[in-house]
Here is the input.
Amino acid sequence: MNNVAHKNRSREETAVPSLTRKEYEQKLRKLHIEQVKLQEWVKHEGKKVCVVFEGRDGAGKGGVIKAMTERVSPRVFRVVAMTAPTEREKSQMYVQRYVPHFPSAGEIVIFDRSWYNRAGVERVMGFCTEDQAKNFLKVVPGVERAMVETGIILLKYWLEVSPEEQTSRLAARIDDKRKIWKLSQMDLDSYARWDDYTRCRDDMFEATDTAWAPWFIARSDNKRQARLNIISHLLSNIPYKKVPRGDVKLPKRTSLAASRFAIP
Here is the structure.
């Protein structure tokens, strides 16, 4: 698949031609049909799916999630975007506040950023100590093994954006009053620390890329292609099948006169 691969797989860095809106929407429609099949299979079989999206600010996580969820049921495809922890949550075991959001039978949970905040923004911005970050990297593979062993299908995606494209996207948020809410002071502070994020990303990959929960990297400079690639990759990594369904026909409407709810 173009520009989505396990982090250790070599990729040929070739430019992907831009898709027209019509081409993009045609391809996306086909993927949406497959997503509905996936949705019905997850419900029918009682499967549990967890999808993690990570990446720098402006990498395109929100756009991928929007494309992935716009034609499916929010009762099945559930998006989790955690706010900053409360004082009570800060006193808990780090991953504790994420556990209640893990999928139950018949659910696909999408994390728009996840427990990996500790390996990224918290470490870079000094919201945790180095010892806390290193302990997290040591512990989290075991947590994810436990998730997988309880039947959760876990997929982890890192969206990789170039520094030039990130600059373009964040600058656009400043100039477009419809997007200014997407640019926080944290985004500005993080922007200046590209190299620090790179080192933390590499440490994260080294410690948490496991056989049971590997990382997949998606090149995201081309937004439309990245969305198609990631959805296609997700579908190809879940062994879903079409759930048998009989023909659906609208029933005849009961006349008001024959209805027991008719007003005498």
Observations:
- The first helix runs from residue 21 to 45.
